[in-house]
Amino acid sequence: MTSPSAPETASLPTDSVGMPLPRPDVDPPGRWTFPEPTTARLDNGLTVHAYDIPGQYVLSIRVIVPLSTRAEPRDQEGVATLMSRLLDEGTQAHSTDEFTELLERKGIEFGAALSEAGLTIHAEVAKRSLPAALALVEEALATPSFPDKEVTRLVRTRLAEIEQERASAPHRAIREFAATYFDPAERASRPTAGSPETVRGLTRAEVAAFHATHVAPNAATLVVAGDLAGLDPHALVAEAFAPWRPSPVATPDQRRAAEAAADRHRIVLVDRPGSVQSEFVVGTAGPDRSVEPAWAAYPVLSFVVGGSPNARVDAVLREEKGYTYGMRSSFRPRRAGGLFLTTGSVRTEVTVEALDLLLGILDSAREGYTDQECTAGVDFLRNTAPGRFATADAVADEAATLVLDGLPLTFTTANLDAMGRLTPEALAAAYGRFVDGQWTIVIVGDASVYADRIRALGRGPVTVVAN
Amino acid sequence: MPLEYPVVRHTLPNGLQVVVSPDHSTPTVTVNLWVDVGSRHEVAGRTGFAHLFEHLMFQGSRNVASGEHFSLILGAGGRLNATTWFDRTNYFETVPTGALDLALWLEADRHGHLLDAVTQTNLDNQRDVVKEEKRQRYDNVPYGNAMRDLYATVFPEGHPYHHPTIGSMADLDAATVADVHAFFRAHYGPDNTVLTIVGDITPAEALAKVERYFGGLPAIGHQSRPTLAQLAPLERPARHTVVGAVPNDRLYVGFRLPVERDPAFLAAALAIEALAGLSMSRMVRRLVRGDQSATSVQGHTMGFVDGVSLGLLAVDVADGVDPNAIEEALLEELRGFAASGPTEVEMEAALAGAERGWLSDLAAQDQRADALSHQALLHDDPDYVNRFLDELGAVTPDEVRAAADTWLAPGSRAVVAYLTGEENVA
């Protein structure tokens, strides 16, 4: 932006002795690689990866247990999530209050996340309390007691959470998107944590049975990351996890992508009379990270199309029009298959104009990318990597995600290297493999303001549903 | 034992305070600026202005085109943003080491020469963007305005913390280009700013670069007004009730607290942890896991500098439970705690959690830089990041009890109740 109308010398910033300072050049950084772990396998089958990250004094632990929410009985959907939330609510050796106290006296942050691809336990702990944290994580995974009282409570909590999600426009929109995009026979079309009719009746026996048949060390992986100087992480993990007995568990074939609904190319308006904004989800199919020829193009495309205020979407909708605080487009891989989603909100009055502009931008992105866009996206992703993966938490998260997706731990580095070889043509080809101009569109807002004009856009059949 | 993050300080002749903390673990550098202006400095009729102004800092300056700050930093492999809060506005980027000069040049251009590029068009555009931010984060969200209501209930009319940083739609509409000029001239200058550099650089190199890019900016002769006197606890309970479209009843119970570096502030923060912050805390144990009359209980502390801070309990009331009964139970726990103080185990857990949380906050360069800027700008003491845990550890159980007795008294509570029911805007 400076060369055609080069600023006058007098207007350049000057240093303390009055010398003008032109915009500095950037020295490009060297190649960077994701840390490599030391790996071992315990007698009970648990795989252990230890990442030494000097200077990271809070250690991050992850335990990844692959399982599929497809394994939940249809009338017990949400049982896997409920099981995960109950793991730290009491064990065979300790009551709920006792176990909570054991964690908190050591300052251990404990959490469990359940996705379509599996269970991930995470624990964060100051370095000196690693042995205590490992022992408590083992206890939670191997010998949870699922007290009846806590089962009842967390069922009620989930029912309250469903109401809170229904009241939240982004949550409501993504739930409707899943129900519209995926074939109704697919588990993916319904909430991972379950629906009122499937959660309400869940029992302790069902939770315990799901745990017994799906959670065991044989298929599980533990990641520990942080400053490991002076510690023998493999010995510590082996000692803490030795009591966890292996058992036969179902290992579902997770390589099949969820089928999309035959009638997914349509528009659903979730009606909220009086809403001051319209919340959008606009989506279509995308790849998972095993896609051929490579995943590398997709994070770059996400950045260029909808990853910043300067990306194509916000350059128009935010910076030119002022319709939105920000919309984001991104390719979101699942265990198999994936989605390309654009999400965000605009004020109610401009809903139709914003949707029309957005679809135009997303469709025209099939036509190609400039060298400058390609370079900027590649440089952003490759050169931010050292900072993005600088903490124990970030390294453990990345490793856990790779394990959950069945990818090698060398994937991150190989993917960054592959980005360096991308061209604008490769970006266009990668986008065009999935984006065909046919969309599933959900808008949560005051449908009475814009339903007729949305129909008139001719972008697909329109249905209006209640919030 | 204090932490050992290096802290090197230097002040330029124009008043710019510089803090450098080398860390060569990754080939990146964070540049973090805190400007001593936030929503507490706003005047009536111009609420939300400090934040709207922050948006304009990305719309170009003397030698930088609109949006170019973003595109140059992102394209160099940097991550960046800015935020506005009651007590300050911060601007920050983490870049590969080879882009440090670019980052400093860009920051110096906008912190020194913003006004050359401010236009009515940019102001109108970012006003629209900020109004969408307000709708997205507050107005179109269940309970989205609860904190606004709590500030207004806990703090008196006209107090700097009575209104939220996002401001009001009417005040955003009223902002003019002349306001932008006046605000920049009043608050943006090297003598009202701290610049922190954390990362892959030596202090000598960092200071030389800062002098190079910022040395030429003139001081603005900024005079801070003295901070206000400490507000006493509320003399009687205050209450604000909102009935409307929320998924469940929720109570927010707020208290005035001492300013953030007052020793009693840390004691009050530990009391709130023991009462409601921890999973083993008294209120969680009684209401969530005990009689299950609440689905969640949270406790938070927000430290401020201008005469008061905020302590806060938030409770999601279980379906079918009377919120008044919940409130009575909270008050009972407050009274009990003020009488007997924390147990040994509560102290141990609150401190262990604080240690893990503080070390996590310092784990990444960008957050460490933000913590250093915070302590340098607001307290002239960046090394506090190394001493914080020791000071927290020195608080005695009786000081915690006394802080609860003084600052968390039932009679000094402000309650904001969001209740389910037919909308009734009073």
Number of helices of chain A: 16
The CATH topology of the largest domain in chain B is Cytochrome Bc1 Complex, Chain A, domain 1
CATH superfamily of the largest domain in chain B: Metalloenzyme, LuxS/M16 peptidase-like
- Give the integer mean of the pLDDT values of chain A: 94
Give a structural overview.
The complex is a heterodimer of chains A (467) and B (426). Chain A has helices spanning 79-86, 96-105, 130-142, 148-167, 169-181, 196-199, 204-214, 233-241, 297-306, 312-317, 351-364, 371-388, 392-404, 411-419, 424-434, 447-456, and strands at residues 38-41, 47-52, 58-66, 109-115, 118-126, 221-226, 267-271, 277-286, 328-333, 338-347, 440-445, 462-466. Mean pLDDT of chain A is 94; it is low at 1-13. Chain A has 16 helices and twelve strands. Chain B has two domains: 8-214, Metalloenzyme, LuxS/M16 peptidase-like (Cytochrome Bc1 Complex, Chain A, domain 1, 2-Layer Sandwich), CATH 3.30.830; 238-420, Cytochrome Bc1 Complex, Chain A, domain 1 (2-Layer Sandwich). In chain B, 43% of the residues lie in helices and 19% in strands. In chain B, the strands form two sheets. Chain B has a six-stranded mixed β-sheet, with helices on both faces. A five-stranded mixed β-sheet of chain B has the order 7-11-8-10-9, sandwiched between helices. In chain B, helix 1 packs across helix 4 (120-139) and helix 3 packs parallel to helix 8 (203-214). Chain B is globular. At the A-B interface, helix 2, strand 5, helix 4, strand 10 and helix 12 of A face helix 2, helix 3, helix 4, helix 8 and helix 10 of B.
